[in-house]
Design goal:
By secondary structure, the chain is α/β, with parallel strands linked by helices. It folds into two domains: 89 residues, Urease, subunit C, domain 1 (Roll), CATH 2.30.40.10; 294 residues, Metal-dependent hydrolases (TIM Barrel), CATH 3.20.20. Helix content is 34%, strand content 23%. The chain is built from 13 helices and 18 strands. The strands form four sheets. The protein has an eight-stranded parallel sheet, with helices on both faces. A four-stranded mixed sheet has the order 3-2-1-4, with no helix packed on it. A hairpin with a 2-residue loop joins strand 15 and strand 16. It is globular, with a radius of gyration of 22 Å. The two termini are 30 Å apart. The structure holds zinc ion. The site of zinc ion has 6 residues, from loops.
Length: 412
């Protein structure tokens, strides 16, 4: 074996396992492997999982708070100020900022990521070029998927559609729309869906990002998804509007989304900052059988002036905002950061026999404890090769006064 991780907990496995890796794949999984690896790792204090999966982030506009502020804390202001700033984005500038995010994410145990990239008349294809470079540079560390995205609308721009088309031809993996910034939201959805079908790729919409109960675009997206046979290939993010609807209006929309197998994503940090904590009704959709994920969305910009790209922290924030604390809720939250988005992005989920050796060790006995206590990730391997190692806190040996006596404590 190239690598054996000993005595580690794996969610869904009843007993601790040894994981054997050869040529980048998991070739053995058993309570005790009676062989040696070139590399051996003691997993005693840890659980192993396939790494976090970021399904919704905007690498192109991370870390721009120093050049554009959000004066009134509104979505409108965030969009306007970012739109003005992005005309000045260069490929180098985007690459440097995005690089910081990707590195930080790898250190937080993220193994796959879908980033939106704005492709429009303000920035052209410059941000896309930067992210394509990063996707190649970090391919041994993280699976980066690029979603060509029409943040500022589509139908009002002469070149809107052809730029998206260019982006897909040049290697964007998926296409994304934002009907609420388009003067013709339905035509926006139609054009994005048509483009997706043409390139046989998945679709991700930013939708219903307000707290007005009227005017949801979701019934139209559901209708289009079903009409095109695109079930299981459409995601929607934000959808805060759903949470202020009366139940008799909400229920048919959630049922329709379920029928169309639409993935629903909440972005807790942004929804907290811009919408005062109103989030899409994920728990309700989950209880109906719907697929949900949580994402970072933005890092230190006018949409979300905070962030460290730690998805586990995003899960913990979601639990706090929704006042969830039971073990089964914590486990579901962990799934929303790992196996559910992995399924949506079609990347490795939990470690399994024959699967890719994408493995992260997290210092917790189980997912619920990890989410509740924000336990640290220790180390990880991508396709069997170690990609990061976090060194934990080390207390410095010294003397402290306790009840008048002197007592020595030392680091482990
Ligand atoms: Zn977003």
């Amino acid at each position: 074996m190239d690598l054996i991780i000993r005595n580690v907990a794996i969610p869904t496995f009843p007993a601790r396992q040894d994981i054997g890796v050869r040529d980048g794949r998991i070739v053995a999984l058993a309570p005790h492997l009676d062989t040696h690896g070139d590399e051996e790792e003691d997993g005693r204090d840890c659980m192993a999982f396939g790494g976090f999966v970021e399904s919704h982030i905007h690498l192109d506009k991370a870390y721009i708070l120093d050049r554009c502020q959000n004066r009134d804390g509104s979505l409108k202001s965030a969009i306007a100020t970012t739109q003005a700033a992005k005309s000045a984005f260069t490929t180098d500038d985007v690459q440097m900022r995005a690089d910081r995010v990707v590195k930080a994410a790898i250190g937080c145990g993220t193994m796959a990521m879908q980033t939106f990239v704005e492709v429009d008349e303000y920035v052209g294809l410059r941000s896309l070029d930067a992210l394509r470079i990063l996707r190649d540079e970090y391919s041994d560390f993280i699976d980066l998927r690029i979603c060509a995205f029409a943040q500022d609308g589509l139908t009002q721009f002469a070149d809107g559609l052809s730029l998206l088309d260019h982006a897909l031809r040049q290697g964007a993996n998926t296409v994304g729309g934002c009907p609420y910034t388009d003067p013709d939201p339905r035509e926006h959805v139609r054009q994005i869906m048509r483009l997706a079908a043409q390139y046989d790729c998945d679709v991700d919409f930013h939708v219903d990002f307000d707290v007005e109960p009227e005017g949801s675009i979701l019934p139209f997206i559901i209708e289009q998804t079903l009409a095109m046979g695109y079930q299981g290939r459409v995601s929607v993010g934000h959808a805060t509007k759903l949470s202020v609807m009366q139940p008799d209006r909400l229920q048919p929309i959630l049922s329709g989304m379920l029928r169309a197998d639409i993935l629903l994503t909440a972005l807790p940090a942004t929804d907290l900052f811009l919408m005062g904590g109103v989030m899409a009704p994920l728990l309700q959709y989950h209880h109906m059988g719907g697929r949900c994920t949580l994402g970072t969305n933005n890092v230190v910009n006018p949409f979300t002036p905070f962030g460290d790209v730690n998805l586990l922290r995003m899960g913990n924030l979601f639990a706090n905002m929704e006042r969830l604390y039971q073990n089964e809720d914590m486990a579901w939250i962990f799934d929303m950061l790992t196996v559910i988005p992995a399924g949506a992005l079609r990347v490795a989920g939990l470690p399994e026999l024959g699967g890719s050796a994408d493995i992260v060790l997290l210092e917790a006995p189980d997912p619920a404890t990890a989410v509740r206590e924000l336990r640290p990730v220790r180390t990880g391997w991508k396709r069997g090769r170690r990609t990061f190692h976090n060194h934990g806190v080390e207390l410095v040996t010294g003397r402290v006064a306790t009840h008048g006596k002197r007592r020595t404590f030392c680091a482990q």
